[in-house]
Amino acid sequence: MRRSLLENGTEAMESEKQTQPSEPPATEPPAEREPWAVTSVEMLEGIHAMTGVKVVHATATWCKACGRIKREVGAQLAVDVTWAAVSVQDVEGAQEAMNIDSMPRVDVIDARGNVTTFSGFDCKTENILAAVARAQEAGAVPQLVLDADF
């Protein structure tokens, strides 16, 4: 199954035929995970309204650090984290909607809607992944364990 994001921000599942080799090659790098491409401010708002942890990456073709973040962070994000990229060059109003004043820019949004923002020199892979881990912990449902005395 492959996820895609519709224009209104809702998810759609598309089935695709997958074949698995008998043994994966040992020298092949892991498949690179691609973010959802945000095409409008309305779609960006739809992503913010989704449940779970979200990573919204503001990009631009001239921003070399944006490409590095895409490669490094994308490869390490868990599959249950919604990852979206919005081009501030191509999506009219995105820069204003995200209040972007420097690039690169990444927003990590937890399940409760709390936003942790990284921009400029603070936008480092380890900072982003640590914020994602905190967001996942904050949204985790505590498990009740009953012992024998209950």
Topology:
Elements: E1 2-5, E2 11-14, E3 36-38, H1 41-49, E4 54-59, H2 64-74, E5 82-87, H3 94-97, E6 105-109, E7 115-119, H4 125-139
Parallel strand pairs: 3-5, 4-5
Antiparallel strand pairs: 1-2, 4-6, 6-7
Give structural notes.
- The chain has 150 residues and is α/β, with parallel strands linked by helices.
- It has a single domain, classed as Glutaredoxin (3-Layer(aba) Sandwich).
- The protein has helices at residues 41-49, 64-74, 94-97, 125-139; strands spanning 2-5, 11-14, 36-38, 54-59, 82-87, 105-109, 115-119.
- The strands form 2 sheets. The chain has a 5-stranded mixed β-sheet, sandwiched between helices. Strands 1-2 form a two-stranded antiparallel ribbon.
- The chain is elongated, with a radius of gyration of 17 Å.
- The protein starts with a strand and ends in an 11-residue tail after the last helix.
- 24% of the residues are buried.
- Residues 13-30 have low confidence and may be disordered.
Number of discrete helical segments: 4
What pattern of helices and strands is seen along the backbone?
EEEHEHEHEEH
CATH class: Alpha Beta
Global outline: elongated
- Specify the CATH architecture: 3-Layer(aba) Sandwich
CATH fold description: Glutaredoxin
The largest sheet has its strands arranged as 3-5-4-6-7
Residue runs with pLDDT of under 50 for 5 or more positions = 13-30
Q: How many beta-strand runs? A: 7
What is the number of independent domains?
A: 1
Strand content: 15-25%
- Overall structural class, as computed from helix and strand content, comes to alpha/beta
Q: What is the mean predicted local confidence, pLDDT?
A: 81
Rg over CA atoms, rounded to whole Å, is 17 Å
Report the biggest beta sheet as strand number plus sense, adding barrel if it closes. 5 strands, mixed
Helix content: 25-40%
What's the name of the CATH homologous superfamily?
Glutaredoxin
